[in-house]
Each structure stands twice: as C-alpha cells, then as structure tokens.
C-alpha cells in the first residue's frame, strides 16, 4: 500500500505530469486521472495554527464537496505526534501548516518520513511564480513544502528621526557601522539594532552567509564559525554593542520596547513583519503615524547583492501517507497562492502574484512615512540561499552561546567557539556529517 | 484464622482494580520505556545495546543539566520541607476560618498552569510590569535581563517551585494534623508544653509518615524539574535553555528530534536516582509498617 | 474566649507575620491575574500594574475567547468536566479501596505492592508518552474520552496517601469490634472505614480533580480532534498559534493577546477554587478524636 503510485508517476514522461497538473487546476475535487491509489473522495485532515484556521474554513466553504476536517494543534510537539503516528501507522494530517520552516528538513527525513514531494502535484507555472521563495522547501532536489509567507529582513528606520539628525540611510554594513559610531557620539541613548535575541542569527549571520546550516549534500552540512563570513558579523556588531548603539537586549525585551515607545529606535534591521507587528501595535513600540520606513538591506562588503536573512515564514506540507494527495496538494496550493486569502494575510505572502494583491492593500497605510513595499519586495528575492533548513535547530544554540554572552555583558565573538561545538554535536546527533 | 483468610481474600479483591491500573498504566509502560532505552536505532535496523546511554552521557547538554538540577535540589528541597512544615504547623496552631482561607490562598498559585502560568510568572519577574517592581529595583534589578541572568535562574526556579508547590503539601499536612486525636494534644497541654514544643515534639512525630512521603516525592519532583525552566525559557526565549534540566533535555530529545531511546535513558537515570533515594529513606524508617504488623 | 488568648505576644505577631508574608507572595500574583483581563494588551504592559481596567475590556476579552471557532471553548469546558470527573471517580475509588486493604489486611506481597506503587509514582512522565500511546492505540481508543480517563485513573499518589491515612488513623480496635459484631469484611469497609475516611476522600477527590482538570500532557498526546480537547489543550493550541506570549511567532490578526491569555487562565483556576471550598467542608476536624483510646 505504501505509495505504489508515486514513483511510477515520476518515471512517466514529463508531459503526463503537466497533464496531471492541468487536470488538477481545471477540476479541483473532480474526477481522478492517472495515479491509481489516489482517491479524490478520501477525507482530508488538516492541521493548522489558529491564525490560518479561518482561511482553511474559507476553502471548505468554497469547495463544499471536499471532505475536510480542520483541527488546530499546539505546534510545540508536532514532531512527537508525527512520530507517534509513524508507530501506529495512522493519524497523520493530510495537510499541515507548520509555522517553523526549519522543520521541513526533519519532516522530509527518513526518520520522520512524512513530507510528500510536491514537484508533480503542484503545477509547474505555480512553482515558477514562487520565484526563490520555495528555496528552503527544496531538499535534495525535491520540493517538500510550499511557503506561506516570507520573513525577509529589511532595514527599518525612523524617517523623521533620521531627518532630524541629518543622517543618510546606510547602504552597506560599513556605512551602518560608521553611522552607529556617529550616533553613539552625537545622540547617545538611541539604538540602531539589537543583538540580544536569537534573531541575531537571521538578521546578521544568515544574511552574511555565515555557515551554520549550510547544506552541502544529502545529510552533509558545513558549520564553521571561524569563516570570514561569520567573523565579519562579530567584527561589525561587537564594537557597536560595546558603544550601546546596538542593544544587548532583544526586540521584544521590555527595555527595548520602552526605547521604542520613547521613539529612540533610529534603525532596526529586522523581519518584514516588524512594521505591522512590532513597531505599530499599541502594546509594542506604538510608533506614531508617518515615521517608519523600510530600506533595502545593507550589503556586506565584497558581496554583489544585499542578502537578507529569513526570520521564519510558515510552510504548507502534504502527507506522503495521504490517500488523497491531489486533494491535499490542492488545498495547500490554494492556501499559499490564493490572492483573496493572501491579500488578507497578516504577513508578506511568499507567492509572487499573491504578494502583489497583499501589497496593493497596504501601499498607502498612513502608518508608514513612505510605502515600505518596494523594500520588502526587493528583499523577498534576496534571502541568502547559502543557509537552508536542517533537521537540527540553530536557535537554541545561538541563544545559549553568542546571545547569552552578549546579554551577560560580553561579546558575540566570545560565544563563537561554543556555538561551533554545540551545533556540530546537534548536527551529528541527527545524523549529519559535518565538514 | 478463618476471619483472617476472609480478610485476605477481600483485601485482594479491594486492591485488584488498583493493580490492574498499576500494571496497565504504570509498570507496563515503564517497562516498555526501559526496553526502549536499550534499543539502538542504526541505519541497518534496531539492535539492543548501551549506545543510547553512551550518547546521552557524552552529550554536551547532559552534565550541565545534571549540575543545574543538583544545585536546584540543594536549594529548593530544604526550603520546601522546612517551609511546608512551618506553615502547616503555624496554621494548625489555632484552626479557624482564617486558616481555611490561607490554605486556599496558598494552594491557588499552583493551580495556575499552562499559558496563564507562563504569562503570570514572567510578569511577576519583569521589573517594568511587575507589582513587585519596586522591590526588584530596590534589589538592583533594573531590567528583565538583570533578573533573568544565568546566576539567578536557580533561585527563580526554586522560588516559583516553592510558591506553586507548597500549597498542596500544606493542605495535606494540615489534613494529617487534623487527625491527631484531641486527647493527645490536651495531654501535651496538661504537661505544660507550649505551642512550639507541642508542634515539634508531639505533632511532627505523629505526622512523620506524611513528612517522609513529602520528602520522597519532592526529591523526585526536584530531580525531574521541568515546568519552571521550560516556562521561563518559553517566554523569555533567552533565560536558561530548553535543556537546563535533565528532564527538559529528555523532553527535547524525544520531542525535537524524535529520539525516544535517548529520552528513555534520561527518564531511567532519573527514575533510578529517585528510587535509590526513596529506598534510603524507607529502609531507615518504619515507613511500610502498619498496626497489623505489630 | 479568655482574654489572654487575644493578647498580642511577640510570638503570635511573628506567627501572623510569617503566614501573611507568604500569603502576599501568593495573593499578589492571583490578584494581578484577576485584574489582567480587564485591561487592554497595551495597558497591561504600560499602565499601573495593580490597576483595574474596565468591565468592557473584560467582556471584550471574554468575547474574543468565545468567538474563537464558534464557541468551541464551551465544548472544551464540558470535556474538561467529563474527563476530570470520570478520572476522579475511578481514581479515588480504586485508591481508597487499595489503600485500605494495604493498611488493614494481611495481604500477601503487600510490601512489594507498596514499593511498586512508589516506583510508579517516581517514573518521569516523559518516559510514558510513547508506551501509553501505543497501548491505547492497540485497544483502538485513541482520540476518545477513555484514552484520557483510563490512564488518569491510575492514581498511585492517592493510593499511597490512603495507605498512610488508614495505617495511621484507622484504629485496629474499631475493626475488631466490627468483626465481633458480625460485619463482613466488605461491611467493615463500608460501615466503619468509609465514614471515617471522609476527610481523606475529600482530600483525594480534590487533588485528583485538580490534576485531571489541569492535565495537559496526556490529552495532548491522546487527542487529535479539536472537539475532543479539554480546556488546557484547547487553549494551548489557540494561544501557541498567536504571538500573544511569543512575539517571535510573527503576525496574526486573531484578537488573542495577553489579557485573553490571563482570562483563559482564570477560566481554568476559578473552578478549582470552587471545588476547594466545597471539599474543605469534608476536611473537618475531630471525626477520629475520641473514637479510640478514649
């Protein structure tokens, strides 16, 4: 019973796959074509977080003949549940929304054996429209998930304040550092970023291409905290941390929130959702209207492109155990790509055409001093592909080493050796060869 | 003799439901966990061996977690035992409506669990939003990161564990003292014993089995420390780690990487430590003896 | 009341100070939690910490929780009651019977059973997840009420407490007298032991209720259908998907923020307080005083 259909389908001429895809878009939930074991009437179990739940319900409403069951789950122990289902041979959700994109590496691994390759289940033109957004979903050449939203980093800045102080928005990290020194001298108490949170990985190390999750082959990874692409990050930030212009706390710590409320955050490199969900909310920085703007990310010296990191961004997966893979893939595809759904989504859609619809609704939000969309859009294609998803997590090791050092009054550089040791062990413990 | 046998048969009948539950949901699963801890998953298939133990003991997360737990126990256990007994004895000194209210008040913090517990204890400790803010600032803690500094964590966990854990045992101890016959206390009073002497020399010995029970279970609970560090790391994302304690480390193995074998080894190590400690206490006391034995 | 009892001696002042001092650490968090849902998310982090917001806000927070998925919250509450009461009946019944038999009858293997009970209590829950799930799955019960009720009916803590209670507070003379009166062993338990054990049952019922009402781990593992969740699992699932406690989650338009989280906590805690007050009536003093040796 275990997927007899799929390898056969893959061996068939590409034209058949394209035909399948066409049939799928033409008559969703309709008659079955080709792939034998797939039962278009098999009920579909959907697992979602609470935020995405209404959208799944909208799909059900629009497609009343699709048999769906939509359940919310606590993301904390998702991997356990999948393991338990593997033991008992049933219970897997057919469609899964996972807010932790890194987990695609585990879910597609032999150990978890859950994620279904989507190469032949999602039409080629749809895959193409994702652009580079699905890069993290592609493992050993197979597309294992569809990206829901992107958390590309941009340089957020307080336009009013920059004008008052007479500063130019930095275009390179060297300019950023130079400006930081100036701020420290001329306007002490203002900050241009934070380093005391795990996001320091995404905002700086990932963007620089520091190899912590650099997959070099199947079950092979490069981890090297002595790489110049890592040291240039510590060399950039440590002096700024020392001067106090880059905070030793994180963006959500009470003291940084207080600075935000006092309008003392001059710049903040951060994810695309910071504008709406960190700067804007009354309970967070509560920045007044007409001050915030987004600039493209600064460029590391020697790089031709202004690489971003990626602070999350959810993914949709389909179960390889599903009896109705086409139906499942259709739901995942609709969720990730439907312009109606994505235009209302809280965060930047990964799917290009949907992102247009999302952007159109936000272009003239009076909260922003100028339209942040161009910067977000530019960075959406520039998430540094050097780093990708791995079956080990990086966040806890980052927190326990470099972040812990910075928060305790030391430097990022102090924690790099421990970081190397911890990541190497973590990677090896889940079966990676580290080089 | 016949009545005695009759008693035995009825006794067996009485414990039977419990034995079924014990085997089905306690010992059976535990035995399976022991088995799991020896199953080593290799690319070639599963084999039996000690590799899981070697991997666990050699992991960079194991020994720091063991040291954290040891320090936690050293601080928390004495506070717990002395604190619970002192509060229960004080409450029992003059039972009244006041003591009933107090027991409820002492119990409720432990009933706040899950997300609300996370929110609550974070907000109690973050100086900028805590009602204890002035006190925290007076102690030199200006910012959250001062409070949640590495060196304070064990004290924070011990404090939360005491406030949330003491109530339950105070209720039990108080209940136990309620069962001390009035005439015993009256006799003590007639002998001229004051409240303190009565408490220490009369009441405490009479509830000693409960005290021992509390010590054993608290020791195990301390060894298996999980909720407090998980809670504080869960909301700060910076204070401590997901493997600050041994039980957390086991949880991370099982739940983050699906390594049930590795997780089982940690559970087993904790279980053996708890049992050894329990047996040490029990064999030195008459914990299991009943009036029937005499 | 003789006048000297009301005199404030240094000792009594100290006693009150200790009791009230600890109470402050318990009450302040509870009051904070009561006040939190009356404020907006912004007021919670910037306003005066112990201030009251408004009833409108409280109503809004309640509405936000209730609106979630067409009031599935009510279903969860009902499930919680069902699971907690189901486990309560089975766990208190089995443990009181077993504790009684262990304490007053000549049971072969009594000591072994006590040791195993203790071991059963000391097993870290992490170790039991996988085996329990496989077991429940083998009998086709996953995702049913029984999958939560049955494993929770295993209550070694209660059995042990009952054992201690009967072995310290159950006068053998009373049982002998019952036997002489011609009572059967079952009759002895029902007519002599059970009435004496009312405080014990109150205590066990309360602890069992709290443990199962708050149970997160077991239902989380066993249940995979939203309509079957209990309150802690359901609320956990809602809250974990929002940035309320974890801003690093990114954005969400769901109106589930910190005041809603606090309210969710209260929804779980308030029934516990009510049950405590109810059970307190059974923890009365003096049932045993004078019953023996009098």
From TrEMBL, chain A:
InterPro entries attached here? Bact_solute-bd_prot1, SBP
| Record Gene3D superfamilies | Periplasmic binding protein-like II
The record's section on Pfam families has: SBP_bac_1
Cite the entry's keywords alphabetically: Cell membrane, Lipoprotein, Membrane, Palmitate, Signal, Sugar transport, Transport
- Residue intervals passing through the bilayer: none
Q: Is Zinc a UniProt keyword of this protein? A: no
Tell me where the signal peptide lies: 1-37
Q: Does the keyword Lipoprotein apply?
A: yes
- Could you identify this protein by its name? Multiple sugar transport system substrate-binding protein
Q: Which organism is it from?
A: Knoellia remsis
Automatic annotation (TrEMBL), chain B:
Positions of the ABC transmembrane type-1 domain: 65-281
Q: Give me the Gene Ontology terms describing cellular component.
A: plasma membrane
Among Gene3D superfamilies, the record links this protein to: MetI-like
- Which keywords accompany this UniProt record? Cell membrane, Membrane, Sugar transport, Transmembrane, Transmembrane helix, Transport
Tell me if Cell cycle is a UniProt keyword of this record: no
This protein's membrane topology, according to the annotation, is:
Multi-pass membrane protein
Any Pfam family: BPD_transp_1
- Per the UniProt record, which residue ranges are transmembrane? 12-35, 69-92, 104-122, 153-172, 210-227, 260-282
Cellular location(s): Cell membrane
The protein's matches in InterPro entries, at most eight in alphabetical order, are given as: ABC_transporter_permease (IPR051393), MetI-like (IPR000515), MetI-like_sf (IPR035906)
What biological processes does GO assign it? transmembrane transport
Quick check: keyword Transmembrane in the entry? yes
Concerning its family, UniProt says:
Belongs to the binding-protein-dependent transport system permease family.
Q: Name it.
A: Multiple sugar transport system permease protein
From TrEMBL, chain C:
Q: How does it sit in the membrane?
A: Multi-pass membrane protein
**InterPro entries to which the protein is assigned, alphabetical:** MetI-like (IPR000515), MetI-like_sf (IPR035906)
This protein's GO cellular component annotations are: plasma membrane
Major place of localization?
A: membrane
Where it sits in the cell: the answer is: Cell membrane
Is the keyword Membrane in the record?
Answer: yes
Q: Which SUPFAM superfamilies match?
A: MetI-like
What is one GO biological process annotated to this record?
transmembrane transport
Per the similarity annotation, which family is this?
A: Belongs to the binding-protein-dependent transport system permease family.
Question: Which protein, by its recorded name, is this?
Answer: Carbohydrate ABC transporter membrane protein 2 (CUT1 family)
Q: Identify the species of origin.
A: Knoellia remsis
